[in-house]
Fold:
Amino acid sequence: MPYRTIIEPFRIHSVQAIAFPTPAEREDALRRAGFNLFGLQADEVIIDLLTDSGTGSMSDRQWAAMMVGDESYAGSRSFYRLQDVVSKLTGFSELVPTHQGRAAERILFSVAVSDGDVVPNNTHFDTTRANIEYQGAEARDLVIPEGRVPATEHPFKGNMDVARLIETIEEIGTDRIPMVMVTVTNNSGGGQPVSLENLREVRAVCDEYGLPLFLDACRFAENAWFIRMREPGQEDRTPEEIAREMFSLADGCTFSAKKDGIANIGGFVALNDPEIAALCRNLLILTEGFPTYGGLAGRDLEAIATGMEEVLDEEYLRYRIRSTAYLAEKCHSAGVPTVRPPGGHAVYIDAAALLPHIPPSQYPAQALAVELYRDGGVRGVEIGSVMFGMVNEDGSETPSAMELVRLAIPRRTYTQSHIDYVGEVILSVAERKESIGGYRIVEQAPWLRHFTARFEPV
Ligand code: F0G
Structure:
Protein backbone atom coordinates (compact mmCIF):
# COMPACT_ATOMS: atom_id res chain seq x y z
CA MET A 1 0.00 0.00 0.00
CA PRO A 2 1.38 3.44 -0.93
CA TYR A 3 0.05 5.08 2.25
CA ARG A 4 1.78 5.22 5.61
CA THR A 5 -1.21 4.85 7.90
CA ILE A 6 -1.84 1.29 8.96
CA ILE A 7 -5.57 0.94 9.48
CA GLU A 8 -7.58 -1.50 11.57
CA PRO A 9 -8.17 -4.35 9.08
CA PHE A 10 -11.82 -4.75 10.08
CA ARG A 11 -15.11 -2.89 10.20
CA ILE A 12 -17.02 -2.85 13.46
CA HIS A 13 -20.03 -5.14 13.27
CA SER A 14 -21.31 -5.18 16.84
CA VAL A 15 -20.40 -2.74 19.57
CA GLN A 16 -20.37 -2.69 23.34
CA ALA A 17 -20.90 0.59 25.19
CA ILE A 18 -18.10 1.92 27.38
CA ALA A 19 -18.99 3.26 30.82
CA PHE A 20 -17.76 6.73 31.77
CA PRO A 21 -17.46 6.85 35.57
CA THR A 22 -16.92 10.40 36.86
CA PRO A 23 -13.73 11.34 38.74
CA ALA A 24 -15.69 11.21 42.02
CA GLU A 25 -17.03 7.74 41.17
CA ARG A 26 -13.52 6.56 40.34
CA GLU A 27 -12.23 7.90 43.64
CA ASP A 28 -14.99 6.04 45.50
CA ALA A 29 -14.25 2.87 43.55
CA LEU A 30 -10.53 3.09 44.40
CA ARG A 31 -11.28 3.43 48.10
CA ARG A 32 -13.80 0.58 48.08
CA ALA A 33 -11.26 -1.65 46.24
CA GLY A 34 -8.46 -0.79 48.68
CA PHE A 35 -6.52 0.78 45.77
CA ASN A 36 -6.31 -2.64 44.09
CA LEU A 37 -7.44 -2.44 40.45
CA PHE A 38 -8.43 -6.13 40.47
CA GLY A 39 -11.18 -5.08 42.89
CA LEU A 40 -12.86 -2.73 40.39
CA GLN A 41 -16.04 -3.65 38.59
CA ALA A 42 -15.41 -3.60 34.84
CA ASP A 43 -18.10 -0.92 34.46
CA GLU A 44 -15.98 1.37 36.63
CA VAL A 45 -13.23 1.26 33.98
CA ILE A 46 -13.13 3.38 30.80
CA ILE A 47 -10.33 1.59 28.89
CA ASP A 48 -9.47 -1.86 30.24
CA LEU A 49 -5.87 -2.89 29.56
CA LEU A 50 -5.64 -5.34 32.47
CA THR A 51 -4.97 -8.23 30.09
CA ASP A 52 -5.06 -9.35 26.45
CA SER A 53 -6.27 -12.76 27.61
CA GLY A 54 -9.79 -13.74 26.59
CA THR A 55 -10.70 -10.08 26.14
CA GLY A 56 -10.41 -9.87 22.34
CA SER A 57 -13.28 -9.47 19.90
CA MET A 58 -14.37 -12.45 17.87
CA SER A 59 -15.01 -12.06 14.16
CA ASP A 60 -18.24 -12.67 12.27
CA ARG A 61 -16.64 -15.90 11.02
CA GLN A 62 -15.98 -17.04 14.57
CA TRP A 63 -19.54 -16.29 15.67
CA ALA A 64 -20.83 -18.11 12.60
CA ALA A 65 -18.58 -21.09 13.37
CA MET A 66 -20.03 -21.18 16.89
CA MET A 67 -23.49 -21.71 15.40
CA VAL A 68 -22.30 -24.95 13.80
CA GLY A 69 -20.54 -26.15 16.95
CA ASP A 70 -21.18 -29.84 17.55
CA GLU A 71 -22.02 -30.43 21.20
CA SER A 72 -21.70 -34.21 21.09
CA TYR A 73 -20.15 -35.55 24.29
CA ALA A 74 -17.88 -37.93 22.39
CA GLY A 75 -16.44 -37.56 18.89
CA SER A 76 -17.60 -33.98 18.29
CA ARG A 77 -17.09 -32.81 14.72
CA SER A 78 -15.78 -29.52 16.15
CA PHE A 79 -12.95 -31.38 17.90
CA TYR A 80 -11.85 -32.97 14.62
CA ARG A 81 -11.94 -29.58 12.93
CA LEU A 82 -9.72 -28.05 15.63
CA GLN A 83 -7.40 -31.06 15.52
CA ASP A 84 -7.07 -30.60 11.78
CA VAL A 85 -6.21 -26.88 12.12
CA VAL A 86 -3.71 -27.56 14.93
CA SER A 87 -1.99 -30.47 13.22
CA LYS A 88 -1.65 -28.60 9.91
CA LEU A 89 -0.09 -25.64 11.71
CA THR A 90 2.04 -27.36 14.35
CA GLY A 91 2.65 -30.79 12.86
CA PHE A 92 1.82 -32.27 16.30
CA SER A 93 -0.24 -35.43 16.01
CA GLU A 94 -1.88 -35.45 19.47
CA LEU A 95 -4.29 -32.75 20.67
CA VAL A 96 -5.54 -32.55 24.26
CA PRO A 97 -8.03 -29.66 24.61
CA THR A 98 -8.38 -27.88 27.98
CA HIS A 99 -10.47 -25.03 29.34
CA GLN A 100 -7.48 -22.64 29.32
CA GLY A 101 -3.68 -22.48 29.29
CA ARG A 102 -3.02 -23.21 32.96
CA ALA A 103 -5.10 -26.41 32.78
CA ALA A 104 -2.87 -27.54 29.90
CA GLU A 105 0.16 -26.74 32.06
CA ARG A 106 -1.18 -28.60 35.07
CA ILE A 107 -2.00 -31.71 33.05
CA LEU A 108 1.30 -31.82 31.15
CA PHE A 109 3.44 -31.16 34.24
CA SER A 110 1.48 -33.66 36.39
CA VAL A 111 2.40 -36.29 33.82
CA ALA A 112 5.93 -35.25 32.90
CA VAL A 113 7.48 -33.29 35.81
CA SER A 114 8.50 -34.82 39.19
CA ASP A 115 9.68 -33.66 42.57
CA GLY A 116 13.27 -32.32 42.38
CA ASP A 117 13.22 -31.74 38.59
CA VAL A 118 14.32 -28.48 36.96
CA VAL A 119 12.49 -26.97 33.98
CA PRO A 120 14.46 -24.32 32.08
CA ASN A 121 12.51 -21.64 30.16
CA ASN A 122 13.36 -18.17 28.85
CA THR A 123 10.95 -16.75 31.46
CA HIS A 124 8.14 -18.74 33.02
CA PHE A 125 4.76 -17.03 33.14
CA ASP A 126 3.40 -17.04 36.72
CA THR A 127 0.89 -19.88 36.18
CA THR A 128 3.58 -21.94 34.41
CA ARG A 129 6.00 -21.38 37.28
CA ALA A 130 3.32 -22.12 39.88
CA ASN A 131 2.29 -25.37 38.17
CA ILE A 132 5.92 -26.54 37.96
CA GLU A 133 6.56 -25.62 41.61
CA TYR A 134 3.34 -27.41 42.56
CA GLN A 135 5.01 -30.63 41.33
CA GLY A 136 7.95 -29.92 43.66
CA ALA A 137 10.17 -28.93 40.75
CA GLU A 138 12.16 -25.77 40.05
CA ALA A 139 11.20 -23.33 37.26
CA ARG A 140 14.46 -21.75 36.12
CA ASP A 141 14.50 -18.58 33.99
CA LEU A 142 17.37 -18.41 31.48
CA VAL A 143 16.54 -15.43 29.26
CA ILE A 144 19.52 -13.58 27.72
CA PRO A 145 20.93 -10.77 29.93
CA GLU A 146 19.52 -8.06 27.60
CA GLY A 147 16.04 -9.44 28.39
CA ARG A 148 16.36 -8.34 32.01
CA VAL A 149 17.09 -4.64 31.41
CA PRO A 150 14.04 -2.54 30.36
CA ALA A 151 15.91 0.15 28.41
CA THR A 152 18.25 -2.13 26.39
CA GLU A 153 17.36 -2.34 22.70
CA HIS A 154 17.64 -5.84 21.19
CA PRO A 155 15.51 -7.37 18.40
CA PHE A 156 14.95 -10.68 20.23
CA LYS A 157 15.00 -9.92 23.92
CA GLY A 158 13.02 -13.09 24.59
CA ASN A 159 15.88 -15.36 23.44
CA MET A 160 17.11 -18.15 25.67
CA ASP A 161 20.68 -17.82 26.95
CA VAL A 162 21.97 -20.98 25.25
CA ALA A 163 25.28 -21.05 27.16
CA ARG A 164 23.40 -20.96 30.46
CA LEU A 165 21.03 -23.65 29.21
CA ILE A 166 24.01 -25.94 28.55
CA GLU A 167 25.49 -25.05 31.96
CA THR A 168 22.18 -25.88 33.63
CA ILE A 169 21.90 -29.24 31.88
CA GLU A 170 25.51 -30.09 32.81
CA GLU A 171 24.87 -29.00 36.42
CA ILE A 172 21.52 -30.77 36.93
CA GLY A 173 21.91 -33.80 34.67
CA THR A 174 19.52 -34.87 31.93
CA ASP A 175 17.62 -37.29 34.18
CA ARG A 176 16.35 -34.36 36.31
CA ILE A 177 15.33 -32.17 33.35
CA PRO A 178 12.04 -33.50 31.99
CA MET A 179 11.78 -30.85 29.28
CA VAL A 180 13.09 -27.49 28.09
CA MET A 181 10.47 -24.80 27.49
CA VAL A 182 10.52 -21.59 25.46
CA THR A 183 7.77 -18.98 25.86
CA VAL A 184 6.83 -17.18 22.62
CA THR A 185 6.52 -14.26 22.99
CA ASN A 186 8.11 -13.89 26.42
CA ASN A 187 5.23 -12.33 28.37
CA SER A 188 6.89 -11.91 31.77
CA GLY A 189 9.94 -10.40 30.06
CA GLY A 190 7.95 -7.66 28.28
CA GLY A 191 6.21 -9.58 25.47
CA GLN A 192 9.54 -9.93 23.69
CA PRO A 193 10.06 -12.30 20.75
CA VAL A 194 12.37 -15.30 20.32
CA SER A 195 14.26 -15.63 17.03
CA LEU A 196 14.16 -18.70 14.78
CA GLU A 197 17.93 -18.85 15.07
CA ASN A 198 17.65 -19.06 18.86
CA LEU A 199 14.94 -21.74 18.64
CA ARG A 200 17.18 -23.74 16.28
CA GLU A 201 20.08 -23.46 18.73
CA VAL A 202 17.89 -24.57 21.65
CA ARG A 203 16.66 -27.48 19.49
CA ALA A 204 20.26 -28.50 18.75
CA VAL A 205 21.08 -28.48 22.47
CA CYS A 206 17.97 -30.56 23.22
CA ASP A 207 18.97 -33.04 20.50
CA GLU A 208 22.50 -33.30 21.85
CA TYR A 209 21.24 -34.11 25.35
CA GLY A 210 18.15 -36.06 24.29
CA LEU A 211 15.66 -33.63 25.93
CA PRO A 212 12.18 -32.75 24.67
CA LEU A 213 11.45 -29.11 23.80
CA PHE A 214 8.02 -27.59 24.50
CA LEU A 215 6.81 -24.16 23.44
CA ASP A 216 4.52 -22.05 25.62
CA ALA A 217 2.86 -20.95 22.40
CA CYS A 218 0.22 -18.48 23.68
CA ARG A 219 1.41 -15.69 21.36
CA PHE A 220 2.96 -17.75 18.54
CA ALA A 221 1.57 -15.56 15.74
CA GLU A 222 2.88 -12.31 17.24
CA ASN A 223 6.26 -14.00 17.63
CA ALA A 224 6.17 -15.14 13.98
CA TRP A 225 5.47 -11.58 12.86
CA PHE A 226 8.46 -10.22 14.78
CA ILE A 227 10.65 -12.88 13.13
CA ARG A 228 9.43 -11.76 9.74
CA MET A 229 10.08 -8.10 10.53
CA ARG A 230 13.40 -8.46 12.32
CA GLU A 231 15.24 -11.66 11.40
CA PRO A 232 17.49 -11.52 8.35
CA GLY A 233 16.26 -13.77 5.53
CA GLN A 234 12.70 -14.09 6.91
CA GLU A 235 11.10 -11.00 5.34
CA ASP A 236 9.58 -12.83 2.36
CA ARG A 237 7.99 -15.68 4.29
CA THR A 238 4.37 -15.72 5.43
CA PRO A 239 3.62 -15.69 9.17
CA GLU A 240 2.16 -19.16 8.71
CA GLU A 241 5.37 -20.54 7.19
CA ILE A 242 7.39 -19.04 10.03
CA ALA A 243 4.98 -20.32 12.68
CA ARG A 244 5.15 -23.81 11.15
CA GLU A 245 8.91 -23.76 11.36
CA MET A 246 8.75 -22.58 15.01
CA PHE A 247 6.49 -25.52 15.90
CA SER A 248 8.55 -27.97 13.79
CA LEU A 249 11.51 -27.29 16.09
CA ALA A 250 9.54 -28.43 19.17
CA ASP A 251 8.15 -31.75 20.40
CA GLY A 252 4.98 -30.19 21.76
CA CYS A 253 3.38 -27.08 23.19
CA THR A 254 1.00 -25.70 25.76
CA PHE A 255 -1.41 -23.07 24.49
CA SER A 256 -3.92 -20.59 25.87
CA ALA A 257 -6.45 -19.91 23.12
CA LYS A 258 -7.38 -16.69 24.98
CA LYS A 259 -4.39 -15.01 23.34
CA ASP A 260 -3.51 -15.96 19.75
CA GLY A 261 -6.58 -18.18 19.46
CA ILE A 262 -8.58 -14.92 19.63
CA ALA A 263 -11.17 -16.82 21.65
CA ASN A 264 -12.67 -15.89 24.99
CA ILE A 265 -11.81 -19.26 26.56
CA GLY A 266 -9.83 -22.40 25.76
CA GLY A 267 -6.42 -23.98 25.51
CA PHE A 268 -4.63 -27.23 24.77
CA VAL A 269 -1.58 -29.42 24.99
CA ALA A 270 -0.39 -30.61 21.58
CA LEU A 271 2.48 -33.04 21.17
CA ASN A 272 3.94 -35.94 19.22
CA ASP A 273 4.52 -38.49 21.98
CA PRO A 274 1.47 -40.82 22.05
CA GLU A 275 2.37 -42.26 25.46
CA ILE A 276 2.51 -38.87 27.19
CA ALA A 277 -0.66 -37.89 25.34
CA ALA A 278 -2.42 -40.99 26.68
CA LEU A 279 -1.38 -40.12 30.26
CA CYS A 280 -2.58 -36.54 29.72
CA ARG A 281 -5.96 -37.83 28.50
CA ASN A 282 -6.37 -39.98 31.59
CA LEU A 283 -5.99 -36.88 33.76
CA LEU A 284 -8.11 -34.83 31.39
CA ILE A 285 -11.04 -37.18 31.89
CA LEU A 286 -10.61 -36.85 35.65
CA THR A 287 -10.69 -33.06 35.83
CA GLU A 288 -11.59 -31.41 32.49
CA GLY A 289 -13.78 -33.69 30.42
CA PHE A 290 -13.83 -36.30 27.68
CA PRO A 291 -10.81 -36.07 25.30
CA THR A 292 -12.85 -34.64 22.43
CA TYR A 293 -13.99 -31.55 24.36
CA GLY A 294 -11.72 -31.16 27.41
CA GLY A 295 -13.76 -28.71 29.47
CA LEU A 296 -14.97 -26.69 26.49
CA ALA A 297 -18.22 -26.50 24.57
CA GLY A 298 -18.13 -27.67 20.97
CA ARG A 299 -18.78 -24.08 19.91
CA ASP A 300 -15.65 -22.97 21.77
CA LEU A 301 -13.58 -25.48 19.79
CA GLU A 302 -14.99 -23.92 16.60
CA ALA A 303 -14.16 -20.38 17.74
CA ILE A 304 -10.57 -21.41 18.50
CA ALA A 305 -10.11 -23.23 15.18
CA THR A 306 -11.30 -20.17 13.23
CA GLY A 307 -9.33 -17.78 15.46
CA MET A 308 -6.10 -19.70 14.90
CA GLU A 309 -6.59 -19.30 11.15
CA GLU A 310 -7.40 -15.58 11.38
CA VAL A 311 -4.53 -14.71 13.70
CA LEU A 312 -1.97 -15.53 11.00
CA ASP A 313 -3.45 -13.02 8.55
CA GLU A 314 -0.74 -10.54 7.56
CA GLU A 315 -3.00 -7.48 7.64
CA TYR A 316 -4.14 -8.44 11.11
CA LEU A 317 -0.61 -8.97 12.44
CA ARG A 318 0.71 -5.77 10.85
CA TYR A 319 -2.08 -3.81 12.58
CA ARG A 320 -1.74 -5.71 15.84
CA ILE A 321 2.00 -5.16 16.32
CA ARG A 322 1.77 -1.61 14.98
CA SER A 323 -0.95 -0.62 17.43
CA THR A 324 1.19 -1.73 20.37
CA ALA A 325 4.25 0.09 18.99
CA TYR A 326 2.09 3.19 18.42
CA LEU A 327 1.27 3.49 22.11
CA ALA A 328 4.87 2.73 23.10
CA GLU A 329 6.15 5.47 20.76
CA LYS A 330 3.83 8.01 22.32
CA CYS A 331 5.39 7.21 25.69
CA HIS A 332 8.95 7.05 24.39
CA SER A 333 8.85 10.34 22.50
CA ALA A 334 7.45 12.10 25.59
CA GLY A 335 10.26 10.69 27.72
CA VAL A 336 8.10 8.17 29.60
CA PRO A 337 10.38 5.14 30.15
CA THR A 338 9.09 1.79 28.82
CA VAL A 339 10.50 -1.65 28.12
CA ARG A 340 12.29 -1.28 24.79
CA PRO A 341 11.63 -2.16 22.06
CA PRO A 342 7.86 -2.55 22.49
CA GLY A 343 6.62 -6.13 22.77
CA GLY A 344 3.72 -7.69 20.91
CA HIS A 345 0.71 -7.52 23.18
CA ALA A 346 1.46 -4.82 25.72
CA VAL A 347 3.34 -1.67 26.63
CA TYR A 348 5.29 -1.96 29.89
CA ILE A 349 5.96 1.35 31.66
CA ASP A 350 9.11 1.37 33.81
CA ALA A 351 7.72 2.83 37.04
CA ALA A 352 11.06 2.55 38.87
CA ALA A 353 12.61 4.91 36.30
CA LEU A 354 9.58 7.25 36.13
CA LEU A 355 9.04 7.51 39.90
CA PRO A 356 12.54 7.25 41.42
CA HIS A 357 11.32 9.06 44.55
CA ILE A 358 9.10 6.07 45.48
CA PRO A 359 11.19 3.21 46.92
CA PRO A 360 10.31 -0.39 45.91
CA SER A 361 9.00 -0.92 49.45
CA GLN A 362 6.25 1.60 48.59
CA TYR A 363 5.35 -0.09 45.27
CA PRO A 364 5.98 2.54 42.56
CA ALA A 365 4.26 0.50 39.84
CA GLN A 366 1.15 0.07 41.99
CA ALA A 367 1.16 3.83 42.58
CA LEU A 368 1.41 4.52 38.86
CA ALA A 369 -1.32 2.02 37.97
CA VAL A 370 -3.63 3.70 40.51
CA GLU A 371 -2.94 7.17 39.03
CA LEU A 372 -3.68 6.00 35.46
CA TYR A 373 -7.05 4.82 36.69
CA ARG A 374 -7.69 7.86 38.88
CA ASP A 375 -6.88 10.34 36.09
CA GLY A 376 -8.31 8.59 33.05
CA GLY A 377 -10.15 5.43 34.05
CA VAL A 378 -7.41 3.35 32.37
CA ARG A 379 -6.81 -0.03 34.05
CA GLY A 380 -3.39 -1.68 33.70
CA VAL A 381 -1.69 -4.18 35.94
CA GLU A 382 1.24 -3.89 38.34
CA ILE A 383 4.10 -6.25 37.45
CA GLY A 384 6.55 -5.43 40.20
CA SER A 385 7.07 -5.93 43.89
CA VAL A 386 3.38 -6.42 44.68
CA MET A 387 3.24 -9.34 42.24
CA PHE A 388 6.77 -10.73 42.56
CA GLY A 389 8.24 -9.28 45.79
CA MET A 390 9.24 -11.93 48.32
CA VAL A 391 8.02 -11.57 51.88
CA ASN A 392 10.80 -12.75 54.24
CA GLU A 393 10.25 -14.46 57.58
CA ASP A 394 11.01 -11.28 59.55
CA GLY A 395 8.30 -9.45 57.57
CA SER A 396 10.79 -7.52 55.42
CA GLU A 397 10.48 -7.76 51.63
CA THR A 398 12.93 -8.51 48.83
CA PRO A 399 11.71 -6.38 45.90
CA SER A 400 11.15 -7.63 42.37
CA ALA A 401 13.90 -6.98 39.79
CA MET A 402 11.65 -4.60 37.83
CA GLU A 403 8.75 -2.29 38.73
CA LEU A 404 6.49 -2.28 35.65
CA VAL A 405 2.93 -1.32 34.78
CA ARG A 406 1.69 -3.51 31.92
CA LEU A 407 -0.90 -2.04 29.59
CA ALA A 408 -2.07 -5.09 27.62
CA ILE A 409 -4.02 -4.47 24.46
CA PRO A 410 -7.02 -6.75 23.82
CA ARG A 411 -7.15 -8.02 20.22
CA ARG A 412 -9.39 -6.15 17.71
CA THR A 413 -11.17 -4.34 20.54
CA TYR A 414 -10.00 -0.75 20.82
CA THR A 415 -9.49 1.73 17.98
CA GLN A 416 -6.74 4.27 17.40
CA SER A 417 -8.64 7.01 19.22
CA HIS A 418 -8.89 4.82 22.32
CA ILE A 419 -5.13 4.38 22.21
CA ASP A 420 -4.63 8.14 21.65
CA TYR A 421 -6.70 8.71 24.77
CA VAL A 422 -4.59 6.23 26.78
CA GLY A 423 -1.46 8.04 25.56
CA GLU A 424 -2.86 11.37 26.74
CA VAL A 425 -3.64 9.92 30.17
CA ILE A 426 -0.12 8.48 30.55
CA LEU A 427 1.52 11.75 29.54
CA SER A 428 -0.61 13.83 31.87
CA VAL A 429 0.13 11.51 34.83
CA ALA A 430 3.85 11.57 33.93
CA GLU A 431 3.83 15.38 33.92
CA ARG A 432 2.79 15.50 37.55
CA LYS A 433 4.93 12.58 38.65
CA GLU A 434 6.42 14.42 41.65
CA SER A 435 2.94 14.61 43.17
CA ILE A 436 2.55 10.81 43.18
CA GLY A 437 3.18 9.03 46.47
CA GLY A 438 3.71 5.40 47.44
CA TYR A 439 1.48 2.78 49.07
CA ARG A 440 1.65 0.32 51.91
CA ILE A 441 -0.15 -3.05 52.04
CA VAL A 442 -2.70 -3.28 54.85
CA GLU A 443 -4.15 -6.72 54.04
CA GLN A 444 -2.74 -9.58 51.99
CA ALA A 445 -3.18 -13.28 51.20
CA PRO A 446 -0.34 -15.76 51.82
CA TRP A 447 0.17 -16.33 48.07
CA LEU A 448 -0.73 -14.56 44.81
CA ARG A 449 -1.35 -11.51 46.99
CA HIS A 450 -1.63 -9.07 44.08
CA PHE A 451 -5.15 -10.25 43.28
CA THR A 452 -6.67 -9.38 46.64
CA ALA A 453 -4.27 -7.19 48.66
CA ARG A 454 -5.62 -3.91 50.08
CA PHE A 455 -3.46 -0.77 50.09
CA GLU A 456 -3.31 2.60 51.79
CA PRO A 457 -1.46 5.70 50.58
CA VAL A 458 1.74 6.27 52.60
N1 F0G B 1 1.51 -18.74 29.46
C1 F0G B 1 1.61 -17.43 29.18
C2 F0G B 1 2.84 -16.92 28.49
C3 F0G B 1 0.57 -16.54 29.52
O1 F0G B 1 0.67 -15.25 29.21
C4 F0G B 1 -0.59 -17.06 30.16
C5 F0G B 1 -1.69 -16.17 30.57
C6 F0G B 1 -0.65 -18.44 30.43
C7 F0G B 1 0.42 -19.25 30.06
C8 F0G B 1 -1.85 -19.07 31.11
O2 F0G B 1 -2.95 -19.09 30.28
O3 F0G B 1 -4.64 -17.61 31.39
O4 F0G B 1 -5.31 -19.31 29.68
O5 F0G B 1 -4.58 -20.04 31.92
N2 F0G B 1 -1.57 -14.91 30.62
C9 F0G B 1 -2.61 -13.94 30.97
C10 F0G B 1 -2.00 -12.56 31.04
C11 F0G B 1 -3.44 -14.29 32.14
O6 F0G B 1 -2.70 -11.62 31.47
O7 F0G B 1 -0.85 -12.37 30.63
P1 F0G B 1 -4.45 -19.00 30.85
In short: The longest strand covers residues 94-98. The chain has two domains: 23-52+313-457, 60-310. The chain is about 40% helix and 15% strand.
